[in-house]
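Support case: user asked for a sample of complex input and structure output to validate their parser. Sending the pair below.
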Amino acid sequence: MKSPCQFPSVALLAILCLSWLSTTDRSFGGAPFGSHGSTPPRLSPDYAGVTLPPNIAPLNFRIEEPGIRYRVEIHSTAGDPIDITGRSASIEIPPGAWRELLMANRGQALYVDVSVEGAQSGWRQFATITNQVAREKIDSWLAYRLLKPLFNTYRHLGIYQRNLESFEQRPILQNDKFNYGCLNCHTPLNRRPDTFCFNVRAVSGANHNPMMLVISNRVIRVNRTMGYLAWHPSGRLLTFSINKLSLFYHTRGNTRDVFDAHSNLGIYRVDSNTVVFPPPIASPDRNETWPAWSADGRYLYFSSAFALPEDEFRHVRYDLMRVSYDIDKDKWGQPELLVSSEQTGLSACQPKLSPDGRWLLFTMCKYGNFPIYRSSSDLYVLDLRTKKYRRLSINSNQDDSWHTWSGNSRWVVFSSKRMDGLFARPFISYVDAQGQFHKPFVLPQEDPAFYDSYLNTFNFPELMDGPVTVSQEQLANAILRPKNVLTPSGPARPPSAKPYAGREGAVDQGQMRE
Amino acid sequence: MHPRTENRKPEAKALRWLAPSFPAGAMIFLAGFFVYVWLRIEPALEYQAFGPYVLLRRSFFDPFLKRPGGLADYLGAFLAQLNLLNWLGALVFTALGALSFLTVCFCLERLSGQPRQTASLLPLFLLLLVRNRYGSPALAISAGFVLATTASVGYLGLCPRRHWACVIVSGLGTILLFYVAGVWSSAMFAVLAALFAIVRWKSWTSALCPVAAAVAGPVAAIWFWGIQPTALWNPWGENVEWGLTAALFLIVPLVASGLAFGGQNHGKAKPWEDKIMGGQNHASPEPPGKSDSVEKSKPFAQKIPWLQKAGFRRACALGLILAGCLFVWMRFNQQRKLLAEIDYYSNEHDYSHAVSAGKELTEISPAAEVRLHRALYHLGRLGDDLFEIPNWPGEAPLRGLDSGLEALRVQSRTLLELGLVNDAEHLGHEALEMDGVRPDILRTLARVNVLKNRPRAARIFLNVLGQIPFHQAEAKAALAALDSDARLSTDTSLALIRSRMPTTDLPHAGLPEEALLQHLLTANPHNKMAFEYLMTDYLLTLNLGKAVDSLWRLDSLGYAGIPRNYEEALLLYERLKGVKISLKGRQVRPETIERFQQFTEALKEKLYETPQGRLALQKDFGDTYWFYFYTARSRMASGSTKGGKT
């Protein structure tokens, strides 16, 4: 039997529904549809006008427009659009729908329509944001070191890997696993996750600062201190730098600085466990550093500068050089100048070759060889066909450096402090066939506000085509209780080099941070 | 009566803990406990000086889930946020103490068959002893302890009747407790569960299950998850008195074992057996003729009747409690409290209280010294009363990394006030890495970034500040201020720092005090703070000549007279060098001259060369530069740089 008061209740509910519907647009749950505004919405992070890999995780963002309700429609030519409506300005895109939409629209435009309902003003639709979905995927994993933007001392740091197709982040190795030592310069061979190397510092054993080698997931401790590392694409040898670095500080401008008193490059023959210092890359009167091999393994690229006393640090500028090498004959050519610091008035560092052999990406800054400490650092690209270089339009007025190429040469990831001037964050940029670098976007995070309160800096990003599977415990055991130990034969330094005598303020390369 | 009904009576009695009769004595003790923590320990001092600080975000919580004992540590850290207010912090700790008392009381009663209130107070004394040492994670330790005792209560009170089920529950409970509260808590629970198994079923094999689980947990953690053994045994860090913590977790199992195996009911059916078995004690009555042998086997205490008298036992209990209270009072670490007070009052800008605490210190830390110098500067007494506080002999007032990590946090603030924004940023980040996220570091780094025209970076630090409980409003206000003016132009303290900032670059390694302070004075000759720190540097490093040479700046900085310590340095310099310094119209006060004459008379007797003589000198001249000069020089000559009263 029906209650006598049921009818008035139903009537009241109906009246309320009708009044609500009369005050809102019925399409898309009340948001306006069809009439687009002329101004784009403010989004944080800035994900407008960017080119996306089809396999990237959802670009979650926050709408920085005042309102009480928010609506976002993401759509393209194919696939189901994604519709998100709610009271929160934080837009978290469903990963499954996002993945399907991007995969269905490779090479197509991706549109983002944003509407915001004001407390008094009703719904307002902003100009449509148009992004582009690239045809080419990006390597699915990114390794980086996470640490505070610190200076001398450290407690917690680690190398992590992030699945770019999701928000999953896993540690490769955290320093609490090996008594809070330092670790740096993780370098995979041809983006392979099972073969890579990295340096550790301040650990026990015959050498306190060994290099750790992982070859096909077999971990080896190499009792030799090395600096910046570069694999020959064959995997048969590693080029390394030995540097005598010292940290110092400024009372104005950038707080930190690094001076490299003396450096050379050496070769570690993995196949024969020997170290050599070939004269073309270990000159007594020049400082060579930042090695990088071409994809075909025929050229070694590096930075080189005349050695100057420390008080002339502002005049230390590095040339970009290369030298040919025949690995089968073990024969070196003569060093060749590619970018002259005398001509540019800048210091060239961190060369990185695209796997297709076409482009050389490097940084230039006013002086020195540690660009992440210099806000003047910018990315440049050298066309290896024409030998001409240019400054990239994707640079900011903050430090842009630490770059890495994807396996298909269509993506670069680099660290930039453009968001706040202090913390380096990883940015992804598309490189088209003509060598144009497209507007970069920051690595997406599940929480759109992630970067607003994240105190770590992303250092040394390296793309990989899969996750590192060797466990932290295996790596830590290989450091602390090694079973496989190699002590390379060969000289500790180039025969003609000055002794690497310690002096006040001197630190080894491992202590260079960010 | 039906046997089932018969069984229920003792069972109901055993579950008295559900509605405990809280004895008046315990209430009084806990009230005293509360007052002691509130007024003597003062949790707010600990909050400022040592933290810990919790961030209300998932990424902060997650790591606690990934290690054994993490949840108890998180609980302890979370509760520590309430230390912000003295009374609230004391209330939380007292509540933990009360819970500890109740649960231990129940456990001991279950295992011995008699109320053991005095023995149940023992952990509370140990908790206070742990808390006496400022900076130890007393709340995390207490949380772990209380979790273990509460789990034990749950187990002893609600254990299944079936033997095998009980054994399984004890094993699983041990493992679960290992994950939640760590190795100590699980071990304590395992021992109590094992005791219970022995008492209830007289089965040593049943006791093995929780013990095996207590061993298996840590072994698995080390073997499979690669957890360092040291991190298991001591998850609380370096600032823990190992012996006390171990005693806290061992005391209940030890007392319980003693009561269970060496109790007063030796040689006959024990009441606890009756109670635990729920009246199912099948021990047959003693056969005739056995009573003599039973009498012989009674413990000594039971043979003396007056030892059994309630009055005597109460008096003993009271005496023990008073002795415990006295012991806790005597073991209070007054020096660490003074250091915490200096930190707290400096942070609150209550500089006179900070200096008062500093005067009582017998030995100074680098951090306290930096704070006291800043406090004296803000009181306008740095040039007058520098030697009324202890100073580290021969050490400069600006301390870099080589002076230890403890001083980084406060040094960063001092450098910021001086105008050395880059160096403040440097040390602020070092402190952030070593001390972790703290409100004062976040504030300093936010201000640094505003001064360096990086408002977005400043916002990041303020956003993190807003995630610390009780700091949301402060962060919100600061963020709103940044929204309206990214330079915070109306902030007078920032304007003052801007006026002091260097105008040119001085590349430097480390923290070369003199060069940096001179650099600041070159940029802004009216930087009074830089001048006073430069003079302090000269005085403390016994650089008399430079101190005297810098006195010309008094005119341009608007000093009415000559600060007393500078007068003292001047007189000493004139005496040592045999010269007369022209002060261009300024005069050393007659009382300083007169005192110096007295000091030189004492010097003629070479009093400073012996410890007794130094004490006599200290009594009369301990607040003068002369005394500091001679004691510091002799200490430096002997190679001792320990920071004592100089």
